[in-house]
Amino acid sequence: MEIDPRRLRILHEVSRRGGVMKAAQALHLTPSAVSQQLAQLEREVGLALFDRSQRRVTLTPAGRVLAAYAERIEEQLAEARHELNRFAERLSGPVTIAAYPTVIRHLLVPALRELAARHPRITPVIHELFGPGAVQELRLGGVDLVVTERDMSQPAASLPSMSRHRLYDDEYRIVAPPSWDEVPATVADLVDLPWVAGVPDQACGQALERLAQLHGFVPRRVHLIAEFPPVLGLVSAGHGVAIVPSLALLDVPAGEVVVTGIRGVGSRRIEALTRVSRTTSGEPDPMQAVVIEVLREAADAVDRRVRELSRAPLGPSM
Question: Per the database record, which ranges form the HTH lysR-type domain (predicted)?
Answer without folding.
Answer: 3-60
